[in-house]
């Protein structure tokens, strides 16, 4: 083929260079060389077959030419969907279960919107004005963030389960909707689904709040316009007595009678464990600790330099991520309960009980005693007792290591000024 660097070929009885042949035929030198050397074609064939102008692999869609509606496909999950690429980003739109009338109807609506130009490429704050991410896709991305963010000591917190439940119902109510189209009316529709499933008012408000947070996260990630989150924040919370959602009965403190009736039913086949569980319950009742805090108590967490011991909660501190310390003060009764378990300065949690095992043991025993209660109600019992005895919400909050507002809203179950009111009524009423 070649003579030196000239790359001479014989074309129709004439010896010419590839450069000259390229000028005559309009076919590039590289294309001619590839056809002859790599593909093994004759010079005649290489120089006469026209070059395909349009790539068989597609390419960039022409500007200002209507794009065909994306195809209706079946996802491996069994859902119907369409996929298309626009502005360098792959978009997906889901329509429900494949093969159903609902999915077919949703796709027809999508095709009409597409033909009407709703999904044409346009930029608005760096986003497409009408295309973009669906509610289902946004929820999936948010849950991935939730699973990474809500962890403590390498384990997911209970917030992951709650956010997953909220996202599941959200997808169920608005899977076919674009996130940019999710407005206050759609949020109220989703909220009604929570109510219809039997959710109580506080839980419904909490779930809706998490959905609003999801759109706030999406706005921060440039997945939805900030105006979407701003509009959703305007949806009012359900008020007590003014919604179809029932109010859950406020959790009451465990009474001393309930506690004493439960103790004999603890760990019926293990006397040693029963004694330990009794100690933990009595310690919780005296200090107002949370169940996880009494289970996590270690000798190294205790400051025993005075007659009142100080328990500085470590890994079990619920508010550690907020930078708040949790401290409990143990008086003579609590010290006498703990002392036998501290002999030899043991390493690790001194009781060796996990929070779930501890809670289940108490619940099972209280059910047998026909007075069901949970260990968290021991915290309520101390806060209520302190508020009544000292006539102070501040004292109640200090006793359980929480804020005055939280103590008043959740833990104190009587008016701390009740005694004063009774005395006033006796004297003046």
UniProtKB/TrEMBL annotation:
SUPFAM superfamilies the record matches: DNA breaking-rejoining enzymes
Pfam families: Phage_integrase (PF00589)
Region called Disordered, residue ranges: 57-76
Superkingdom as given in the UniProt entry: Bacteria
Alphabetical list of InterPro entries matching this protein: DNA_brk_join_enz, Integrase-like_cat_sf, Integrase_catalytic, Tyrosine_recombinase_XerCD
Naturally occurring in which organism (per UniProt): Gemmata palustris
UniProt entry keywords in alphabetical sequence: DNA recombination
Protein name as annotated: Site-specific integrase
Entry annotated with the keyword DNA repair: no
Keyword field contains Lipid biosynthesis: no
Domain Tyr recombinase as annotated: residue spans: 249-424
């Amino acid at each position: 083929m070649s003579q030196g660097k000239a790359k001479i070929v014989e074309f129709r009885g004439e010896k010419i260079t590839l450069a000259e042949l390229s000028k005559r035929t309009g076919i590039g030198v590289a294309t001619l060389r590839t056809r002859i050397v790599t593909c093994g074609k004759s010079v005649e064939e290489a120089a006469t077959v026209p070059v395909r102008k349009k790539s068989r692999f597609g390419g960039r869609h022409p500007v200002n030419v209507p794009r065909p509606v994306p195809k209706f496909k079946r996802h491996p999950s069994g859902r119907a969907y369409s996929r298309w690429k626009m502005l360098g980003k792959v978009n997906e739109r889901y329509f429900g279960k494949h093969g159903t009338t609902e999915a077919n109807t949703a796709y027809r609506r999508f095709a009409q919107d597409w033909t009407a130009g709703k999904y044409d490429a346009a930029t608005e704050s760096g986003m497409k004005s009408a295309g973009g991410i669906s509610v289902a896709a946004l929820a999936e991305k948010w849950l991935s963030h939730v699973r990474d963010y809500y962890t403590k000591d390498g384990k997911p917190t209970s917030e992951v389960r709650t956010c997953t439940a909220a996202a599941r119902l959200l997808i169920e109510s608005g899977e076919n909707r674009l996130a940019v189209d999710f407005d206050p009316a759609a949020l109220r529709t989703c909220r009604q689904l929570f109510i219809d499933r039997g959710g109580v008012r506080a839980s419904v408000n909490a779930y809706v709040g998490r959905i609003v947070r999801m759109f706030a996260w999406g706005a921060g990630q440039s997945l939805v316009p900030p105006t979407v989150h701003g509009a959703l924040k305007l949806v009012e919370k359900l008020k007590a007595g003014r919604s179809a959602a029932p109010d859950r009965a406020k959790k009451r403190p465990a009474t001393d009678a309930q506690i004493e009736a439960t103790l004999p039913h603890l760990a019926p086949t293990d006397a040693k464990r029963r004694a330990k569980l009794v100690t933990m319950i009595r310690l919780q009742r005296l200090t107002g600790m949370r169940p996880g805090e009494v289970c996590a108590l270690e000798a190294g967490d205790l400051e025993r330099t005075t007659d009142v011991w100080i328990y500085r909660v470590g890994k079990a501190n619920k508010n550690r991520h907020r930078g708040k310390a949790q401290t409990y003060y143990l008086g003579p009764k609590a010290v006498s309960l703990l002392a036998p378990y501290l002999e030899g300065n043991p390493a690790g949690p001194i009781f060796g009980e996990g929070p779930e095992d501890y809670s289940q043991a108490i619940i099972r025993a209280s059910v047998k005693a026909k007075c069901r209660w949970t260990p968290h109600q021991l915290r309520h019992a101390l806060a209520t007792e302190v508020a009544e005895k000292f006539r102070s919400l501040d004292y109640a909050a200090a006793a359980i290591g929480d804020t005055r507002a939280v103590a008043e809203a959740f833990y104190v179950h009587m008016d701390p000024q009740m005694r004063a009111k009774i005395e006033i009524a006796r004297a003046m009423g």
